[in-house]
Design a protein that fits this description.
The chain has 120 residues and is mainly alpha-helical. It has helices at residues 3-14, 20-30, 36-43, 47-68, 70-99, 102-118. It contains six helices and no strands. The protein is elongated, with a radius of gyration of 22 Å.
């Protein structure tokens, strides 16, 4: 995974564990694509201070993910839900072509609705 996407995902899970200044620096750098100079001006600190805040924030986010693994578990769950939806769609396809069971159709619809609600 690209580092920027990885950091953005980790921020979603662990961003509240950072100080406000750390969170602002790393969000502006990765999510808003601001330069160190622009972030320094916005936060009223030096470019070196911004760089240090970003590096420390990255280390904290990676450490939290190593310990807790929430982002990895989420990605695995998302993959499982996608597989469930694919299987339900196959069942629906064969049911419509071969059996035309209203009960199967209703069950497939329920499975897909639940899977989609888990991803919201």
């Amino acid at each position: 995974m690209e580092k920027g996407l990885e950091i953005s995902l980790l921020l979603d899970f662990y961003g509240n564990m950072l100080t406000e200044k750390q969170r602002d620096a790393i969000e502006n750098y990765y999510n808003n694509d601001l330069s160190l100079g622009e972030i320094a001006n916005n936060l009223g600190i030096t470019r070196q201070g911004v760089r240090d805040a970003i590096k420390k924030s990255e280390a904290i986010l990676y450490h939290l993910e190593d310990r807790l693994g929430l982002a990895k578990k989420f990605a695995e769950m998302q993959k499982g839900v996608d597989t469930i939806v694919e299987c339900a769609e196959k069942i629906d396809y064969y049911n419509r072509r071969l059996f035309r069971s209203k009960d199967v159709n209703d069950s497939v619809t329920t499975i897909i609705e639940i899977a989609q609600s888990l991803c919201e």
